[in-house]
Amino acid sequence: MSEAQLIPLFAAGLAFVSVLLGGYGLIGYLSGANDTAKLKERVSGTTIKRSEALAAPLTSMVKNSLKFFGRMGSKIGPTEVDEIDKNRMRLIQAGLRTADSYKIFQGIKGCLAIGLSGGFLLFRFLFSPDISVAISAFSAVFLATIGVYGPEYWLTKKIARRKLTVSDELPDALDLLVVCVESGMGLDQAIDRVCHELRRSGPVISSEFKLLTLELRAGKSRSEALRSLAERVGMDDLNSLTSLLIQADAFGISVGRTLRVYSDAMRIKRSQRAEEKAAKMPVLLLLPLIAFILPALFVTILGPAVIMSMDMFSAMNH
User: Which residues cross the membrane (predicted)?
Assistant: First the structure.
């Protein structure tokens, strides 16, 4: 056999050996993870899932990455207390409430800025050295700007989506609060009950009510806990609701009547928001209609006439 005929056979054999070794390695890893899980169960006396043992290396890598981002964020982030509190509150409103979330977020911004600009400069010097220095500098600064402000844009959108979710879930929560309060429960018990009832249908407002309940159990006054709830969410409607509840508690006004009036107003506002979205649909559909549907329709209708005209003119020329 010639060398040209031996090359495919050699490549097939090499691929077979590679797949075989990869399979053996995967089997060894799975068995090792299973043995590790069994050993941990014997030492700790608890049951450890096999999936958790398999995901342990990935979890460890994620934790190490977050620690690195946190250390970097503590060095490059702002040092003013007001700026730190403002950024931390934005992360809380987005639902990112770990202890080092602010430092991690700042570290991610710095790594993205350095990584994007540095990667572009490395690509420029290795593969495209003919790019001018001015264009290279402008592109590096532009990519660094994207790395800094891109996470800020993502955080702003996440906060807006969370506020919209809370505004959609709040009327149902208020209806349940009205039912619980008018059935004889206190406001604290009603909030705890609504928190358990809305775990699946309204997870965001349920988590906020859960934090409110924990703060009340920890000894915080009701007014302070309600103000903390409004600050965590950052929504005007919820801020107005907490103000009404604080005033009702202070002046002895019926809480059930206050909640009923406010729930009706929130439900009307949710319906108006849905009607507004429905009214915007014809305008939003106009662009894809012009860009995609009308050209295909014109080709379908006028295509045969154009072809017949071309054939007729070519026959006349002949």
Answer: 6-30, 107-127, 133-155, 283-307
Supply the pLDDT for residue 8: 60
Alpha-carbon gap, residue 199 to 306, rounded angstroms: 62
For 14-45, letters b (16+ CB in 10 Å) and e give: eeeeeeeeeeeeeeeeeeebeeebeebeeeee
pLDDT in tens, 56-80: 566 667 777 778 778 887 887 777 8
What are residue 273's phi and psi, to 5 degrees?
A: -65, -40
- Alpha-carbon span 273 to 170, nearest angstrom: 14
Q: 107 and 153 in contact (C-beta within 8 Å)?
A: no
Instruction: Give one DSSP letter per residue of 188-248, joined into a string.
Output: HHHHHHHHHHTTTT-HHHHHHHHHHHHHHHTT--HHHHHHHHHHHH--HHHHHHHHHHHHH
Q: What is the DSSP letter of 58?
A: H
Rounded to 5 degrees, what are φ and ψ at 248?
Answer: -65, -40
Assigned token pair, 277 = 């979205």
Q: Which long-range contacts (CB under 8 A, 24 or more apart) does 82-91 make?
A: 89/231, 89/234, 90/155, 90/159, 91/155
Q: Any residues with CB less than 8 A from the CB of 94 and at least 6 apart, and which?
A: 155, 158, 159, 162
Alpha carbon distance 278, 270 (integer Å): 12
- DSSP conformational letter for 79: -
pLDDT tens, 189-225?
A: 888 898 888 888 888 989 998 999 998 888 888 889 8
- AA letter at 267: R
35 vs 16: CA distance, rounded Å: 28
The rounded distance, in Å, linking the Cα atoms of 242 and 297 is 55
- Which residue blocks in 45-132 are alpha helix, DSSP H? 50-54, 56-76, 81-93, 101-127
Q: Which one, of 36, 149, 27, 160, lies nearest residue 90 by Cα? A: 160
Contact between 51 and 34 under an 8 Å Cβ cutoff? The reply is no
